[in-house]
Design a protein that fits this description.
Helices cover 43% and strands 17% of the residues. It contains ten helices and nine strands. The chain has helices at residues 5-11, 46-60, 96-105, 119-127, 137-142, 144-156, 199-211, 218-229, 234-255, 260-271; strands at 15-20, 27-31, 37-42, 69-75, 78-84, 166-168, 177-180, 183-187, 194-196. Strands 1-2-3-5-4 form a five-stranded antiparallel sheet, with helices on both faces. α3 runs parallel beside α8 (218-229), α4 (119-127) crosses α9 and α9 (234-255) runs antiparallel to α10 (260-271).
Length: 276
């Protein structure tokens, strides 16, 4: 049975104001009993959201424009988050100025999660099809040759050593930030955040800016790619690209098959050259 946002919000005594723009799954503008504007989201995994909210709190303590997570919990069996309302809107087009502001934030991710490890191992075993997510099942049905390449890449990268204790947002792309009067005011959607190598976040921003060119200026895409890849060791870039390729294949094969041609073109043109 589909859970309605309005029903869960009502159970938590939150008043629904309207939908928030941006993001793949969306969020809801609500107000609490004290009249505070907040952002309410239904999420898939309570443990992930709890971990992500903690990571967001750590970068926020460094002065990062991340929302405060007011609550992370369950209503019945439905996990949810309630976040601070942040000023601004998702820009229609990402400019060089926004790219520079976003990538200037990435150093604040560094070394902020002292506990936890295994980030590289999870990415590598995922490439080989040995992890719980993303899986090979749906991906192999639509792109068996690419999956074979990713398996070989996972074998080649076994034993790779990279930073493990940075904050990794995980979905640091051109639609997960807010801006106002030319200034980035927030980076949101931290529910999947964890420990790892923060350079992956810069790579995600760069890859998505090229994959959806209508939402970034050509200059912004070029700047993002240059800054994200410059000086990064080839095996690290291969890991970032391989994981993003598998993640996207898994997602679009299961949830949005009509976008698979675009996904496969993106992999061939942008991601696969990083590991080939």
């Amino acid at each position: 049975m589909t859970v309605r946002v309005e029903d869960v919000a009502h159970e938590l005594e939150l008043v629904v104001v309207g939908s928030c723009t941006g993001g793949e799954f969306g969020a809801t503008h609500v107000r609490d009993a004290d009249g505070r504007d907040l952002v309410f989201k239904l999420v898939h995994d309570l443990a992930w959201a709890t971990r992500g909210a903690g990571v967001a709190g750590r970068v926020r303590a460094r002065g990062y424009p991340a929302p405060e997570y007011v609550a992370v919990g369950e209503a019945g069996e439905q996990p949810y988050t309630v976040q601070q309302w942040m000023p601004g809107a998702v820009p229609d087009v990402m400019t060089v100025e926004y790219v520079d502001q976003l990538l200037d934030l990435v150093p604040l991710h560094a070394g902020v999660v002292p506990e936890g490890d295994g980030w590289v191992d999870e990415f590598v075993t995922g490439l080989r099809g040995e992890a719980a997510w993303p899986t090979h099942d749906a991906a192999r049905d639509v792109a068996p040759a690419i999956v074979d390449e990713l398996v070989a890449l996972g074998k080649r990268l076994d034993g790779l050593s990279l930073p493990e204790h940075d904050a990794v947002h995980g979905d640091f792309h051109h639609r997960n930030y807010l801006a106002l009067d030319g200034r980035v005011t927030a980076v949101f959607d931290w529910e999947g955040a964890r420990n790892g190598d923060c350079r992956f976040d810069a790579f995600v921003l760069a890859a998505w800016s090229r994959a959806v060119p209508q939402q970034s200026t050509p200059e912004a895409s070029a700047r993002a790619w240059d800054r994200a890849t410059s000086g990064v060791e080839p095996d690290a870039l291969a890991l970032y690209a391989g994981h993003l390729a598998l993640r996207n294949l898994d997602f679009y094969a299961r949830h949005n098959p009509s976008a698979l041609p675009w996904c496969l073109d993106t992999i061939e043109e942008i991601l696969a050259p990083c590991w080939r």
